[in-house]
Model the fold of this input.
Amino acid sequence: MDDPTDDLPGFSDPTRVWFEAAFATPTAAQVGAWHTIAAGKHALVVAPTGSGKTLSAFLWSIDRLTATERPADKLKRCRVLYVSPLKALAVDVERNLRAPLAGIRHTADRLGAAIADVAEHLARLRGEHQVQRLGRRDEDVGG
Done:
């Protein structure tokens, strides 16, 4: 069971150190989400704009992707699926991915910690080719 006084439960050292250097403290929405996720439960975060909802989901996912090896089985490689409710959120999503990925990478280098290169894999999956790379066939799309 995670420590209820730990605001960053279950995060790897590179992610924890990066977050603590980048932010004064996590928001209540982030702490609540991370404790729920660390306990193995699903989380629905409802909070005002600017409260860190997007980062709460992305940071946990980024940490898991960087701290664990990519599965050898290609059918098990899609470990995170994020569905954005509005196309307008694309900039927010991109910003919430780029800064943590770069920051965690630099922090891991400083700490001498080996982490997976998630940014490289994300870059290859970007754009119109993403669906094709994930193996979509025409018969998989209802119409």
